[in-house]
Amino acid sequence: MSKKPILQAVGITKAYGRVIALDGSNLELFPGEVLAVVGDNGAGKSTMIKCLSGAETPDEGQIILDGQEMSFKRPQDGRHAGIETVYQTLAVAPALDIAANLYLGREMRKPGPLGSVLRMLDTSGMRKAAKEHISALGIGTVQNIAQAVETLSGGQRQAVAVARAAAFGQKVIILDEPTAALGVRESRQVLKLIESLRERGMPVILISHNMPQVFEVADRIQIQRLGKRAAVVTPKSHSMNDVVAIMTGAMTVDQKDQALTSVR
Amino acid sequence: MSQDTAVYDAAAEFHDRASFSQKMQVLLHKYPWLSSIMVLGVASIIFSFFNENFLTPSNFSLILQQVAIVGAVAAGQTLIILTAGIDLSCGAIAIFASMTMAKLVQGTPGAGEPIGWPIWLAFPAGLLVGMLGGAINGFLVTKVKLPPFIVTLGTFNIFLALTLTFTKGTVPSIEMDPFLLTLGTYVNIGPFRVTTGVLFMFLMYMVLAFSLRYTAWGRHVYAVGDDIDAARLAGISVNRVLMSVYIVAGLTFALAAWIVIGRVTVASPNTGGNLNLDAITAVVIGGTSLFGGRGTIFGTLIGAIIVGVFRNGLTLAGVDLYFQLLAIGLLIIFAVSVDQWIRKARK
Hints:
The complex is a heterodimer. Chain A is an alpha/beta fold. Chain A has helices at 45-53, 75-81, 98-102, 113-116, 123-136, 154-168, 184-199, 211-217, 240-248; strands at residues 7-16, 19-29, 34-39, 60-65, 68-70, 83-86, 172-176, 204-207, 220-225, 228-233.
């Protein structure tokens, strides 16, 4: 019960002009857990994620990763620190193949002078490693790693994005509405991916609008309301109706009834 | 009963036909340069019927020499179009660079004060002018965030104006520096007799093709043109890639200027007025998508050769110059229609 959070946000405030998206909001992510963040539109979910991943710099507040305070200025900073984010808009290049997408922005070079002088890519090495990453997540449906991503279904594309995060995320993986654009079967695939990430001990933050999915995979659920953290509950302590009620302000939860520490 | 089978037959036939065109579509989607190779092959065969001299090594050597300049400019243009941009100023940059090289060596006769730089200073200065022109385009696209079409439409006029101001509208004298004429010298390769400019253009294509295919930079060029937001989120420094593309393209335009001087043996602000559009034509016919992210540099080379083959073949067949223009126009529309059709292919 006395586990320390791997990732922590303290009093994050972020304003866009006169619109205050985040108003001194907190968040704690504990090792090995899946934390869902829910909230109405404009509750500050996406802004919180952007601050955590480095896509935005908060006006005030601290972001603490593994006990160290971070100051992210660009998405690359968060990535270097070990935080991988899968964005809502599928961040894959459709004309490139699966392996190229997996290694996009951090390509491997051939060993020896071919790589250091001619800067040649190690295409076969990347394909081989990509295949391992894909099969490690149990996505067996992809036949050809050299297949262009545009030939894949939405779920498979999302799987590529998740596999990329899983392959390179050292500390935390953030998934922003990973199932929003997907059908039922494809959503199932992504939920299974989240489960397998948890089995590997990888802490995950999941942003979602889909309550049944949140209740299925999350260990704890953080509810955002009007730029602040309204409550943190667990799927066992509260029902979906409760969560919706907290989201809309119809219900409040006492501090002592909240799940502010690790439940795993 | 017989009516029924007739319907079935018709349906089956329709199905077969559809699946053949679908197969073609998938094949071309995978290898976009295939369509331009096919056009080149068919055109060459047809032209050979009209004139027996068409399919001879000497005629093909001639075509390649005519293609070298546009081909070199189109190589840089391909890079820019792959990033979903376009460069309308490429010809102006080439002319600016060629005038810089020639004028710095010879001085400005009209102004009465020869500059007379040594060639080892004037030649790099010309290349630098090309890269600088590209850098200005790149800066306006990445930092000021203007559409490439607008930027290069503006800089096209600006570079042309600068060239005319710089040269005071005069054409340099005939005594050209021998180094600047290097790419006009001839070499024999088997039955072919081409200028070194042609070989130099091939070398440019090989270097660029290698960079695009085998380096991370090349992959990033495709990714930026394919989906710029995805590329940014994947951690690619999008602006740096775009900037490098415009500068490298500027360099190829300046190198094309060197080929121009070798071929026409003078530097003139009036040469290559059609270079801008001819280069874009070659890229488009070569199967590179104007929407970015799709296409190959060798496709462009084939595209440039197709234009050369059409011009040459139609001339040998005795077709009027106006109809040659018409043919090129139809070719462009055909190429873009095929590109659109190929893009629809999924899996």
